[in-house]
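Renewal narrative, Specific Aim 1. Our central claim is that a sequence can be written position by position from structural information alone. The example that follows is taken directly from our test logs and has not been curated for this report. It begins with the structure tokens describing the chain, in the order in which they were read.
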């Protein structure tokens, strides 16, 4: 029995004209984009760079999908919007699991190259910030951090000025005949979304009559899944930072673990959680 598998006759071998795998994916640029800054170069810095670069690629895809979800909802096309949310959920799970790889970096190993990072920090990830904006957690004060990155600032300004995914969903519900208060539909979308108690009865009616509202009922649960996944990602981030640097300040100037803990109190879709207390309670 041969230990080698012969190449089939039809396999393309000449790439002087044909498009190759590496060219299509621009692998030369991608694989050449890891530049450790530690001196002497520390073995584990490559892990640190790859972890964050791959995360940024997944964040790019999440932005791509969430923007499509916004468009589908605005066109009253709920099914493809749900497909987009489902894809985002799978990406989120991948991002969360990636923390287990970075967690193999011990405090001693990280300490040997952390000082070379200077003031660079994940806090400065404009794609992460764009996702928070797209989900409704908007903060115009964040824009100034990206004054020296025109493309990043433009992305965030667009996300700030546009209705969030939740805004689009609430408008969709209103067009479907659900009694979303006009004050919510007419709100300033550049501001962070805040809890609206008058919206809870709308969701209560949907949940308690799921058999007549199955598609929007499913959409509500998809949004809850998305937020829960986001919180799990935040928690794994927090625990990875805690086990790697303890309670040191972040390289970007934040309080580190304390700052990340505060983020766990943020919510994108507050009424979808509040309604759970009301379901089954007599009107």
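The sequence written for that structure reads:
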């Amino acid at each position: 029995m041969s230990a080698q598998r012969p190449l089939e006759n039809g396999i393309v071998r000449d790439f002087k004209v044909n498009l190759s795998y590496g060219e299509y994916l621009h692998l030369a640029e991608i694989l050449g984009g890891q530049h450790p800054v530690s001196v002497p170069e520390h073995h584990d810095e490559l892990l640190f760079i790859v972890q964050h670069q791959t995360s940024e690629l997944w964040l790019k895809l999440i932005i791509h999908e969430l923007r499509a979800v916004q468009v589908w909802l605005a066109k009253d096309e709920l099914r493809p919007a749900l497909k987009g949310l489902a894809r985002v959920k799978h990406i989120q799970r991948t991002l969360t699991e990636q923390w287990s790889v970075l967690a193999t970096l011990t405090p001693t190993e990280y300490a040997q190259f952390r000082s070379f990072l200077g003031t660079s920090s994940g806090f400065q990830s404009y794609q992460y910030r764009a996702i928070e904006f797209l989900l409704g957690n908007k903060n115009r004060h964040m824009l100034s951090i990206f004054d020296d990155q025109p493309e990043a600032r433009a992305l965030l300004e667009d996300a700030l000025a546009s209705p969030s995914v939740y805004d689009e969903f609430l408008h969709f519900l209103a067009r479907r005949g659900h009694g979303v208060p006009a004050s919510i539909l007419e709100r300033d979308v550049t501001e962070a979304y805040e809890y609206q108690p008058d919206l809870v009865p709308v969701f209560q009616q949907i949940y308690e009559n799921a058999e007549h509202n199955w598609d929007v009922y499913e959409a509500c649960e998809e949004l809850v899944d998305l937020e829960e996944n986001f919180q799990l990602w935040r928690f794994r981030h927090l625990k990875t930072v805690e086990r790697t640097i303890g309670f040191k300040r972040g390289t970007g100037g934040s309080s580190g673990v304390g700052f990340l803990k505060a983020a766990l109190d943020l919510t994108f879709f507050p009424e979808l959680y509040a309604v759970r207390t009301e379901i089954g309670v007599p009107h």
